[in-house]
Sequence to fold (599 residues):
Amino acid sequence: MLLIQFLNALQFSMTLFLLAVGLTIIFGLMKIVNLAHGSLYMIGAYVGLSIWSYCDSFWLAFIFAPLVTALVGAFLYFVLFRHIQNADPMRQVLLTFGLIYIGLDSVRMIWGTMSHSISAPDVLSNSIILISEPYPSYRLFVIFVGFFVLICLYFILEKTIIGAKVRASVDDPETAKLLKINTDKILFYTFSLGCGLAGLAGITVAPILGVEPGMDMEVLVLTLIVVVVGGPGSLKGALIGALLIGFVDSFGKVYMPQLAQIIIYAVMALTLLFRPDGLYKR
Amino acid sequence: MRAVNYNPKLRLQIMIILVSLLVIFNIFGGYFTRFFIAEIAILSIFAISLDFIASRGGMVSLGHAMFLGIGAYSTAILSINYGIPPFYTTFLSIIIGLLIALFIGYFIVLLDGIFFIMVTLALGEMFHAWVFTSELLGGSDGIPGIMRPSLTFIGFDLNEPLIFSFYSIFWLIIAYYFIAKITDAPLGRNLDAIRQNTSRVSAIGGYTKAYKAIAFSISAGIASLAGSLYVQLNGFISPELTHWTVSGEGLIMIIVGGIGSVSGAILGASVVHIIQHELSNIISWWMFIIGFGFILVVLFMQDGLWGLIERIKKKFG
Fold:
């Protein structure tokens, strides 16, 4: 029983991690909080839904939904985000707030207001017996996806030249520019990558949570809290924050269902009081 | 953050024009128009409260709907559960809002721009989540059956739509007058200084934290007033009132009106509310257009309608 809960919490944490890592990279590079990040997650799920229902293949959806979301992100970067980098935070936030409205109504217009469900691929549709208890193998797959992305990102950021350039642009954009690093290009690619990861989160959890308008709002605030608690702008911060919030939320819902939501916010408030820069300070 | 609009003379002129318009529409309008006027007046009070901290204080709050909710719920609880006359509950809810904001403000006012936004958003959502699950506050059903204040002893029946709209406009004038006064007073001047250079103000011995916390709680008190009037107008509360998008829309209102101009907030609230209402009557995908409008406003309207009026006035005299 405890193992099942542990795995559920881990699965939820990994979903949060996929969402938070995109948001935190964008924040680190551009100092912009993208409130439309939840909308990209929703778009990822819906695009996945369409591909899944037309091609009848979960794996095609799993590959192409994040790509389409990344393209949407690239488009948004070119049309909007590139131009508001030096605006004051209020305008940046409200611009992304407008995007939420557009995203929600576009989804309603294209896919309707009904909620849909995607079934997991055949390989992952049955349960695995873990110490005498059955556990859906798809949830294990979600955990695997989270860890895979974590390892890939860690490797890219820490071990490759591109990663070093990204880190340089986060730490000190001006010096990075002087060293002939094309920070605009890096911004563009990381922004698209962050959006793509939101889409990946959307399609990955779609078989578990379903696809419906309004799913963007449900995750947005949690993702923001993960970023604030973990410390904005860092990969490790996003991981720590996601694990903390994911476990507090999952176990809270089991043991203190009345207070579960409030405990999360209390965790954030305490973090801000004692560690204003987040748990993991770069 | 750059300097914000400040022009006391034009502020008063626009305020007088707007209030006259509201009064005229209220007298000659039908039942529905009068209800709508009261809504605009209440939203304007909320917009004024947001405008004050966002412009003078440089604190952009995405959780201000929480104080709208605190005002609304304390009005409801005090009048229904404790039997306090509705007229006094408005005053009490302002005080409750002030005190809670003073406590919260003490911890958060010194946070940097974007962090302040995120923290207020999260705090607002925390309140929203609590309201949604609390049995005392009616949970997701909200609270029905809230009475309007009784002013029959001076000959006013607030259950008349005409009179209640006048009552809301009356509160709007008071809120405007109060905020305009403290904007011109040392508190407002100090906030201007703090926004432009916090460390310099503290270096010459100014109290940055105290001033900001006081400004935050005054603004919250006015938002509570708006919440209190809003439930008295509608007679019931839905927890949706405390959702963070309400604060977001409030911020859009002040951008449309022109940040920092106080009466611009009223102008923005009226314009945005009318457009939203008319659009949602015509087309079902009005949110798409509204969202698009928000983006255009943010990108291209630097000083809002207030800036437009200022430019026109300069041109013609």
Q: What stands out?
A: The domain at 2-274 of chain A is CATH 1.10.3470 (ABC transporter involved in vitamin B12 uptake, BtuC). The radius of gyration of chain A is 19 Å. Strands of chain A lie at 127-130, 133-136.
